[in-house]
Design brief:
Distance between the termini: 43 Å
Largest sheet: 6 strands, parallel
Radius of gyration: 24 Å
Structural class: alpha/beta
Helix content: 40-55%
Number of helices: 20
Shape: globular
Strand order of the largest sheet: 4-3-2-5-6-7
Oligomer: single chain
Amino acid sequence: MSILCCQCEQAANGLGCQNAGICGKDAKTGALQNLLLAWCRHIAGPARTMREIGNSCRIIDQFIIDALYSTLTNVNFSANEIAEKILRAYQISQILEYLSKEKNPEYQASLEKELAAQTAETTQEQIDELVEQGAAYSISARQKAYGNTVVGLQELVLCGIKGAAAYTSHLLPLADELREKLSSFILADKEILKSIKSKDRQRKLDQKEKIAQDEAELAEWISKERELLDGFIRQLAFLGEEPTDIEALYEAAMETGRLNLLAMEMLESAHIHLYGKQEPTVVRTSPVQGKCILVSGHDLRDLYALLKQTEGKGVNVYTHGEMLVAHAYPEFKKFKHLAGHYGGAWCQQQKEFDGFPGAILMTSNCIQKPAESYHDYIFTTGPVYWPGIQHIDPDSEGTKDFSPLLKAALDSPGFFRPKSNDRITIGFGADAVIGLFEQLRKAMQSKIFSRFYLIGGCDGPEKEREYFTELAKNVPADGIILTLGCGKYRFNRENFAPLPSGLPRLFDLGQCNDAQGAIRLAIKFMEEFNCRIDQLPISFYLSWFEQKAVAVLLTLLALGIKGIYIGPKAPAFITPEIMEILVARCDLKLISDNPVNDLGIA
């Protein structure tokens, strides 16, 4: 049996999709994605050598992150676009031959300029040839060569890298924006310093200290970004060597978890710097009258740009899926036409989008095949592509023009009248929860609060995922639920009675990458109560589906968190032998048929 893909939990028969993916990916696109991943591993070797002599190239780094992201589940379904990335990889490999040997800044700049000027367009004949090449890189071929367990561990590392690449893809443009912002602050403060009279010594010292702080922060950002991108190159280069040693592969998986932690930390920090800290916020979940746009995915930067462009244009903007968290950031609250949230998890989109009377924008992964009813009203941007759907690309300055989306919204009927006034409360990011720490401490001391139950991750269409709804409903009355990702839509509209102290019993931390918030909360408890991570009053229940969930799981395991429950089942590449390793070393547990038993309260 030749397996097309086995990277997600939905893989056919628990083994892998063959001629076509359950997600909608066809065999041609699957083969091209396999070839693109092979190219990423191939160019990582000379890219690592290049970095060892002090060279780096942002164009190459960005390409690798984007290429990895495009192979995630439910992201890029365009064979043409994947083929163009493969040709781009070939161009990069040629340039790398020189960059990995030459440390001449002027020479490097000329090569980078040449690389930036090159384009990659494909013919159907080229695509067919690339598809044929891609067939040689199927997981089946590697399983025959190295065995299922070795290849499964290789896939565990690769899937974790791909998940971390998704977070890094959102991070990099924000990091550019943040660096520009810090640089402008420094320049402005230096001008102020020049204007301060020499006799005003204290003011001059204060201004110098402010400049020094901003310069230190800027240097730290640059250093962390380099460390992060170095990590991707290092991990891919390792996989490019076709490692077969079980111990080396296991350690690489843990290193991938640490790499993902850095990506999540930086993404959280960028969001806070640019949009403010999350605040507990009541969000309307029923529509209001008027023309409308729905934004789904994960990319807050795209949502912010859209809100800026549609301000005062007579449309209301709604969030969908993991964009819900936007309502909790102060900078997003300034937009009066950010009207509320519509719908639930990604796997309900075909039904929910069918009932949305406006235009729709997909900003990142989790697209499903668009139905005919909204085919002409849905747009993609960023890494998301679906054949026949209009894609909004940035111009040479990096700006996206959302006017086609706005026109489609104005041409649509919009909502006629509100049907209800439903609301939910969100915005319990790490800083918000840490701000409640003294209340939590007192509640714990008085025995009205005993434990956190983190229930989050990816949602999916399977009936078995009702487990997580029942799990949340059965959390003890003295327990607080922490939730994140789209798994929360299984229970976030349930009415959980607050603790006697008034503290809510459901804290929505935000997107899947806001697992970093749960980690910061855990560290706070460790510091305050002087305990080990395995002594924390936190239980973990993760619903996994695709590669970002794998990355988050590896992060938690790399931190030494044990006893995590996952389900409803493992991805197809996780063999029984791999599960034995994870169970033995990390006390990883598959969920049972009875959530009450898994809560330990039966």
